[in-house]
Structure formats: structure tokens, C-alpha cells
Write a structure and sequence with these properties.
Elements lengths: L1 H25 L20 H7 L2 H19 L1 H4 L17 H6 L18 H30 L15
GO cellular component, one term: light-harvesting complex
GO molecular function, one term: chlorophyll binding
InterPro entries: Chloro_AB-bd_pln (IPR001344), Chloroa_b-bind (IPR022796)
């Protein structure tokens, strides 16, 4: 139902955030950030400061794409699937069949290469449990990074760590 879908979605977002936080803390893309040649924010900045340095138009593009994906999810993919409160498997994102058939080729977000088709139910259940546990851990991890940034020393494992800003 709703709570499991929410937990799965937030876990996936936290896993992306965790990896993104580590990458932003240590690396910068070698190409320009904008068409006018502006460089990406320095890796010397913490990820929160890097986000503040992103142009406003880029932030709006990110929010627009996320909003469209959320709307597609809430509408069940143009009626291709029931809403997650009406029986859809928690965490299963609606396919882009409508676009693939009428506009252009696009991969689905949930199982884009169809690996789950031939998997046993036991394997699917085991992998779902692993995904939920990894998502829970990622939520703790990203909140630990943010806590350590705003309250130095609050996370002993990150305190005085040279790889941490």
C-alpha cells in the first residue's frame, strides 16, 4: 500500500542522494556546467553550498522533470497501471508504453531491461528486502552527512575525517 510505496520511493531517493553527496564532495565534471562556459562548483564546497551555486534555471529544470515523473506515477502511467493505493505493487513505477508507442523510444524506470520477467518469486522477494534495507541505511547515512555538516562532531565516524568537508 501507500506506506510501503513511500518507503521504497524514499529509500531509492536516499540511495541516489548518498552516492551524489559522496561524488559531489570529491569530484567535479571536467566540462562546463552551462552553455556560457561557467564551471561546475568547486569540490572544496560542501554539497549544500554546491547546490546553492547551481543556476536558478537549472534547479527549475530539475524540479520540472521530477514533477512530471511524479505526475506520471500518480496517474498510473496514463492508465496503464492501477494507483499504488488501489493494488499496484509497491515501488513499481508505471511503464512509458504510451511514449514508446506514440512518441519515441524510452526505457522504463522500473526494470528497464526486463530482468525481473524470468526471476523466481523467492528471488524477487529477497531482492526487494535487500532494496528496502539498503534504502533504510541510505536514509540514515544521508541524514548523518547533513547532521555532521550542520552540527560538527554529531557523527563521530565523520568527525575530523579528511575525506569529509
Amino acid at each position: 500500500g501507500f506506506l510501503r510505496h513511500s518507503e521504497t520511493k524514499h529509500g531509492r531517493i536516499a540511495m541516489f542522494a548518498f552516492v551524489g553527496y559522496i561524488v559531489q564532495s570529491n569530484f567535479v565534471f571536467p566540462w562546463a556546467q552551462t552553455l556560457d562556459g561557467s564551471p561546475h562548483p568547486s569540490p572544496d564546497l560542501v554539497p549544500e553550498a554546491q547546490w546553492d551555486a547551481v543556476p536558478e534555471a537549472a534547479k527549475w529544470q530539475i524540479f520540472a522533470v521530477i514533477s512530471m515523473l511524479e505526475l506520471w506515477d500518480e496517474c498510473g502511467g496514463g492508465g496503464a497501471m492501477p494507483h499504488y493505493t488501489k493494488g499496484r505493487q509497491a515501488g513499481k513505477y508505471p511503464p512509458f508504453t504510451l511514449f514508446r508507442d506514440n512518441v519515441h523510444f524510452v526505457l522504463d524506470l522500473y526494470d528497464p531491461f526486463g530482468f525481473n520477467k524470468n526471476m523466481s518469486e523467492e528471488t524477487k522477494e529477497r531482492r526487494l528486502t535487500a532494496e528496502l534495507n539498503n534504502g533504510r541505511l541510505a536514509q540514515i547515512a544521508i541524514l548523518s552527512f547533513i547532521s555532521e555538516h550542520y552540527i560538527p562532531g554529531s557523527v563521530p565516524a565523520l568527525a575530523n575525517n579528511p575525506g569529509w568537508h
